[in-house]
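Anyone? Bumping this.
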Amino acid sequence: MEWLKRNQITVGAGLVILVAAYVFYAVNSNVATSMFSGAWFFAVPLVLGALTGVVGERSGVVNIGIEGQMLVAAFAAFFSAAATGSLIVGVLVGMLAGIAMGAFLALTTVKGLMDQIIAGVVINIVATGLTSFFYRPGKVLSANMPQWEVPLLSKIPLIGDVFFQSGPIALFALVSVPVVHFALFRTRWGLRTRSIGEYPSAADTAGIDVIRMRLVNVTIGGIFAGAAGAYLSMEATGGFERGMTAGRGFLALAILIFGGWRPLRVFAAALFFGFTNALASQLQGVISIPQQFITLLPYLLTLIVLAVAAGRVRAPAAVGQPFVKGEGS
Amino acid sequence: MSQEATQDSTQDTTQNTTRDRPVEATDRSAAPAERLLDIEGLSKSFGTVRANRDINLHVGRGEIVALLGENGAGKSTLVKQIFGLIKPDHGTITIKGDASPIKDPKDAIRRGIGMVHQHFQLVPVMTVAENMILGHETTSRGVLDIEGARQLVRELSDKHGLKVDPDVEVEDLPVGTQQRVEILKALSRRVDLLILDEPTAVLTPQETDELLTVMKELAAGGTSIVFITHKLREVLAVADRVYVLRQGGVVGEVATADTDARGLATMMVGRDVVLRVDKEEATPGDDVLSIRDLVVLDDRQLRAVDGFSLDVRAGEIVGVAGVEGNGQRELVEAIAGMRPPQSGRIDLLGKDITKANPHDTHLAGVGHIPEDRERHGLVASYSLADNLVLNRFSEKPFANGFVRDFDEVRKNAEALFTEFDIRAAGVQAMAGSLSGGNKQKVVVAREMSFRPKLLMAAQPTRGVDVGSIEFIHRRIVAARDAGAAVLLVSAELDEVLSLADRIAVIHGGKVVAEMPGKDADRTEIGRLMAGDH
């Protein structure tokens, strides 16, 4: 009950949107289903990328390298799947690549005290360079990613079609959102993670090992960006292209901020972006604007959203600041 | 002169407390108290600075021990070692007979040590309950037991009579309540020794008195307390014994029953402190500052200053006395141009400065020693030389057109270093590296060096050591004698009483009484400050 009270605006807005979606569905079920499916299709990597951001930044480490993490993971996932002929190996290697990139960020910034922004830029540049250099055209996957239907849930009109009949990585994203949200706000790990991102010296005096926790969180958090990369090259397209993340890592960052570093709101924000994108695709046939302008829309929206949201949401207070034991306090 | 030093005027309270004390002291010496903490030969250096040297100290069970010393005497370094935040170079710390090194705060907590830090170690965006359990959470099936945490807060606050709501986010609490949360947090684990690092620095006089009561109750219940302060009144009011630190070493250990304010002050600074401000009779001239019906809103948009009127003449010190939070901060900010008033009028030498910005206010001749020197007084990452011209760096002689004249800036700094006895590694040292007293001297030096028509000093000696307090007070009187009008705003009644030629008592944002400073009666002022008029 208290939870409802605290989140009444979010819950209320969610209900309004849900009702609107079903009205739309009642009017034209085909268009509605395809638009919302398109929205989720676009939103999956954004949600996953933003979750990496949530875990890292709630621990006090800025991650602007999500784009690079995703790109390397997309590359590693696709080529390992193509080489071994195993989709599972591909997905796992993608996730591991995300974790490895997370470990790089963690070691350079938390242990090495490198500036977090610079470390993120390095990740992005290195990712572009490496994946372009080692890219070999002409590889294909042995099979398409499977489509899974969740029993019962997939039978729900609209929601079932959009969310519960999809590939494994999209389902992973769907499950990850409430899991991370719950972990962040209801578990010991979450309380400690939030404390080291807000006021690390308080956590330190309470006997929490800030350095170790940041290292672990930033590293493990890379799993989501890794999954996002695997989604792009394996589940969404079935191929790797140079620079195929196309700024989605930065969109994920925008969504992270728009969602106020809270997984459930991040999910809503990502869907909103996805829906705008789907709407733009629909409009393509209706009004005569060059296609380039329409694909520009999500990025334009990012600028607007950030300009509006920037002053209203509050980042974890210690984000971006290295923690050195015994300093301050 | 200072709040600590004017013990003569507060003898009633101190004598009462010291009178009970010898009885307790003899009780303890009869049955040798269990040694809870024993420190031998403790030394710690940071680079070439010897922060602690060869310190010997012990604390018995249920004993309150004060660590007294000027800023930079090494008190905080000492307690941080007891709490395992930093490691000693030499020496041993024995807790309840166990002399093994204290590995980290967790180890210290496990061995029964709790610490309330000078800067609260609370996460502002978390609730009281969440802060309370941070680091030793209980969970059931992986889920945080927040209901248990709330219960814990309620039980502890009932048990110790410290009222606090478990569900409020810490950042929404007043400072005094945040401190309660800190104390409760320490008490939530079994604590034998509670360390309080300058607990009263941020408290109002009322909150201070409450804290002192709590400390006595805890000690009566068997908890030992080590507390850092540089306020002599508090030492005499609650401590059983005092260790006086100077330049990293213990220079004196004394039972409070055997000493008084003057004796402690002498030990602290190593020379006799002038306990009163010597000043001539004021010879006021014309009005310099004239405030009429001023209304200023606070951050919550409430009328903090509510119809305030006051005149300050050249060559006099007007002291604004009042309990903190009665509009003093907003008043000072309005005069300084930092907070636009809602209505009313502020004139300086007949010129309307009601809507002037801080720079124009400065140009009009107002020197401002701000209450929060860290935020409004200095730029920590700038050199001292730059900080000393912070309000005039673009004016002659410190600049020619667009180009700064670093020679002049340096010369100015060197002259002020001598004149104001600023102790630092050099004029190019970062302001942030100085102790509190020296930082304040830098601010005072800058604001006085341009011979302001009006000198506005807000809490000028807060968190400053006794030696610096004395110095700053003398400079304020000197500024008056040189013809400046001085507006002194202070929460320390003793400071106002010893400096002011005229006293205005503020309550609820307006002046409720004005009187000459010479023979003002502190009981009467106390009554007026409390809103009884």
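Late reply, but here is one note on the structure posted above: Strands of chain A lie at 148-149, 165-166.
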